[in-house]
Design goal:
The complex is a heterodimer of chains A (about 120) and B (about 120). Chain A is an all-beta fold. Helix content of chain A is about 0%, strand content about 55%. By secondary structure, chain B is mostly beta strands. In chain B, strands 2, 5, 6, 10, 11 and 12 form a 6-stranded mixed beta sheet that branches. In chain B, strands 3-9-8-7 form a 4-stranded antiparallel beta sheet, with no helix packed on it. The chains are: A mainly beta (about 120), B mainly beta (about 120).
Chain lengths: ~120, ~120
């Protein structure tokens, strides 16, 4: 298995531009999570999906952020418009929802820089 | 709400020595799972070790072991025979056994290994 695949690995964009981060979970995993990591706030859960349905989006910072999971093998996190304070590493992770002992498998993350 | 606390922002250990990283958590649940993740400079999140709350026996994975004290809500990580490759940020994480499927992270401990 190739693991959780995120793209792009790095993204540099100008303030005000739309940014789309992509994630392909491990085949067979039915839970998908988006996290944001910053020095100030650590690892924050933004949103998670079970069986492609958003379950908890209470961590999404504001309306500029949106996430979709159109099918079991693909998810996107979109920021529109982007701001410098959105600069962070964004992780996608997946798991078997009912197999809680196994934790999550994380992707390599996308480092977003908004200038 | 569940919380995870790592009170040691930074730790240092000599190569081949043993180091213990602390983690405490707060929960009202009786069924849950605890994890330690390692994040090296590559930023990949790597699962190091995991523990089921209903198991009294402490988990061990090669040079990594935990001291799980359920009553004290403590979950420390011991690294024996430390190696240069162990240098990384270490995160303690909690996952509930109920309807909530979220992994809640502590703020991390940055471990340096001195040659």
């Amino acid at each position: 298995d190739a693991g959780v695949i995120q793209s792009p690995r790095h993204e540099v964009t100008e303030m005000g531009q739309e940014v789309t981060l992509r994630c392909k979970p491990i085949s067979g995993h039915n839970s998908l999570f988006w996290y944001r990591q910053t020095m100030m706030r650590g690892l924050e859960l933004l949103i998670y999906f079970n069986n492609n349905v958003p379950i908890d989006d209470s961590g999404m910072p504001e309306d500029r952020f949106s996430a979709k999971m159109p099918n079991a093998s693909f998810s996107t996190l979109k920021i529109q418009p982007s701001e410098p304070r959105d600069s962070a590493v964004y992780f996608c992770a997946s798991s078997l929802g009912f197999e809680r002992f196994y934790g999550y498998t994380f992707g390599s993350g996308t480092r977003l820089t908004v200038v | 709400a569940q919380t995870v606390t790592q009170s040691q922002p930074e730790m240092s250990v000599q190569e081949a020595e043993t180091v213990t990283l602390s983690c405490t958590y707060d929960t009202s649940e009786s069924d849950y799972y605890l994890f330690w993740y390692k994040q090296p400079p590559s930023r990949q999140m790597i699962l190091v070790i995991r523990q089921e709350a209903y198991k009294q026996q402490n988990a061990t994975e090669n040079r990594f072991s935990v001291n799980f004290q359920k009553a004290a809500k403590s979950f420390s990580l011991k690294i024996s025979d430390s190696q240069l490759g162990d240098a990384a940020m270490y995160f303690c994480a909690y996952r509930g056994g109920g309807a909530t499927n979220k992994l809640i992270f502590g703020t991390g401990t940055l471990l340096a290994v001195q040659p």
